[in-house]
Amino acid sequence: MRVTPVIVATSTLLLGLFLFSEVHAADFFALRAKADAGDAKAQYELGLEYDRGEAVPADSQEALKWYGLAAHNGNRDAQFKLGVKYHYGEEGLPQDCKEAVKWYQRAAKQGNSDAQTNLGFMLYDGECLKKDCTEAVKWFEMAASQGNDVAQANLGILYSNGVCLKKDYKKTVKWLQSAIKQNSATAQQAMGVMHAQGLGVQQNYAEAARWFRLAAEQDDYLAQYNLGELHALGKGVAQNYREAAKWYQRAAEQGYDRAQTNLGIMYEKGQGVPQDFVTAYMWLNLAAAQGNSEATSSRDAIQGKMTPEQIAEGQRRAATFASETE
Question: What percent of the chain has pLDDT above 90?
């Protein structure tokens, strides 16, 4: 780990004094003194300050340095932060599964619910660790019991699909409701599915639409797609192709292939949007590139209605979108 020379840290700190109040600066000096003395909590909080760039200009390397010191001194939140940075290869650190797992485990054993949740995902997906449903559920349950909404939502989903756990829709609803109290978009989307399919609750498309909308407004792409579906079909809401296209587009822009396919077909037919074969081709081409067979068939079918120049423009737009969203 690179340690920033003292002279750089000093000049950075002095710059910060011009930007913030004397009270804030005094608080920062006190925090720095504690951190220099080896206080793990202060070291972690100092790392946060450099991450936030409020008391001092943001400095990712200084943040990493202090997170590292705090983590080695046993601070569980810093251990989680360090795990995330190794997990995703942030701040110049190499992407390192072994280091990520090590720090997640240390934080999780001390009760950090975010680390417990991430370990659950790794064990469920078989990422960095051997796939182990039992262990995944164990970590999810530990995090959920501490009120972690991500773990609660995913426990609910596991109970609903019968993967790792025996299907139990009552438990699904229980965990989803716990996560919904914390405004979890994942849980809202899942609750919408429960109402749309009548799983554990009475089937009610209007109620499904309500939950989908709440999650969609938080940019959950599955909820956006499902809300588009309800508007396209007129289930639980009035049939409205314009609304359907709007929500398909929001999900399509997040890369969801099924939304891209439906949006492409709407542009082909002029449903809810002006008929536009080039735009239709663009969205269908993007979905086809993800292996969506319906998109491939629809894209190939409209080529006969297009000029070579239009096809080339559709391909260009698709390539531009793909490169801008990488």
Answer: 87
Residue range 285-306: mean pLDDT, rounded: 97
pLDDT digits (tens, 9 = 90+) for 159-191: 999 989 999 999 999 999 999 999 999 999 999
CA 259/CA 264 separation, integer angstroms: 8
3-state SS track over the chain? CCCCCHHHHHHHHHHHHHHCCHHHHHHHHHHHHHHHCCCHHHHHHHHHHHHHCCCCCCCHHHHHHHHHHHHHCCCHHHHHHHHHHHHHCCCCCCCCHHHHHHHHHHHHHCCCHHHHHHHHHHHHHCCCCCCCHHHHHHHHHHHHHCCCHHHHHHHHHHHHHCCCCCCCHHHHHHHHHHHHCCCCHHHHHHHHHHHHHCCCCCCCHHHHHHHHHHHHCCCCHHHHHHHHHHHHHCCCCCCCHHHHHHHHHHHHCCCCHHHHHHHHHHHHHCCCCCCCHHHHHHHHHHHHHCCCHHHHHHHHHHHHHCCHHHHHHHHHHHHHHHHHCC
* pLDDT in the model for residue 18: 40
pLDDT, one tens digit per residue, over 252-284 is 999 999 999 999 999 999 999 999 999 999 999
